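hey m, so remember when u said the C-alpha cells were messed up on ur end? i reran from scratch. heres the input so u can diff it against urs
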Amino acid sequence: MSEKDPHEGPEREASDEITPEQQMLFDIMDQSTAKHQAGAPAETNGAPSETQRSGFGEERRDSEAEQSGLCLDDVSRETSEAQEKAPSPPQKNSPSSFYRYLLVLFGAAFLMLLLAYFVQQRNSDAVQDDLELLTASREELLEQIKELEEANHDLAKDNGLLKYERGHYQELYEKAQDTRDGLSGQLQHTQVQFNAAVILGYLERFCGERDYLMAAVVVEQCDQYFNEHNKFYGNRVPIPAAMVSRYLQLREDVVMEKAQCMVTERYYGQDQESYTEEVRIVPSASRYSEEAVRAARTLWDIFWLYSDSVEIPAWKMAQFCAPGSDDLYQLNSRAFQPSTRELFEQVKADLLAQGALTEVDGVLKPVLNGQVVEHIPTEDSISEPTANP
C-alpha cells in the first residue's frame, strides 16, 4: 500500500475510486483485446495498442488499489467473478445470419440472371433464325425484282419496236388502201366502159343482122347505162360521149322505128322541163308473141352474163334447152335470125368445152364444183342477172 500524497485533498480520493461496474467493464475490454491480439497481427506503432492501454489500466488499477487500501487478491477475485457473470463476446470468425441472408439473396439473384440469360439466348437464336430467313427472302425478292425489271425493260423495248413496226405497217396499209381505192376506181371505170362496149357491140350486131327483137331486148335491159333520163340511171363513172351518142342513134333510128314493139313512157317533174323515161317492150302492141319476147330475154341473159362468168349462163342454157321447153322452139321460129341461132350454138359449145355444161342422155346438165346437177331449177328460182356484174 503506497502512501497518500499529503497535498491531495479529499476530493482527489473520491474521484480516484473505481466502482465495481467500471471495473467489470474494464475486465471485459481487456479480455476482448487479448483474444483479438492473439488471432490478428499487431497494429502499427503510430498509436498505443489495446495491450498497452490495458497495461496502463493495470498500473492505474494497482495504484488506485494501493491508494484505496484494497489488496490484490480481492481485486482478482472480483474480476474473475465479473468475468464469469458477463456473457462472452461473439466470435468474429463464424458467419452471422446476416451474411447468410445476403449470400442466399446473391445466389437467388445469380440464378435468376442465369435463367434470364438462357431465355434471352434462346430468344436471340430464334430471332437470328427469323432474321436469316427474312434476309434470304429479301435477297430472293431482290433477285426476282431485278429479273422482273430486266424483263420489263425487255418488254418495253419490244413494245417500242412493235409500236414502230405497227406504225410502219399501218402506214403501208394506208398506202395500200389508197392504192386499192385508186385501182378499184380504175377497175370500176374500166368495167363500166367494158360493159358499155359489150352492150354496144351486141346492139350493133343485132341491128346489123336485122334481129330487131334481140336489139329491142338490149335497149329494154340496158338503157339505164346510156340514157341519163332513164329513171334507173345511176352510173357514177361516165361513159365516153361517143359511145352514148352511138347508142342513142341506134335506139332511135333503128330499134324504135323498125322493131315496132317498144314504147317510151316519160314522167315530167313539177317544172315540166326535167323528166325521166322508161323504155319497154309491149308484146300486145307488136308483131312478137309473149313467148318469143320471153325467149329473147333469156337469150340476152345468157349472152350478157357469158362475158363475165360461166356458172349462171350454164344454168340458164340448161333451162333453155330442157326437154319440153318452149324457149328452144321460139329460137327456131321466124322471130329470130339465123345469126342469133349460130351465136347461141357457139356459146353452148364453149360452155360444154369449159365443163360448165355436160350432156347426159341427150339432156344438158349444169356442172357445179365438179358435180353434175340433176335437178334444174325453174326460171323463177334463178336470180335475175345484173347488167353490171
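this time it looks ok to me. The CA atoms of residues 32 and 160 lie 107 Å apart. if urs says something different then somethings off w ur setup not the seq
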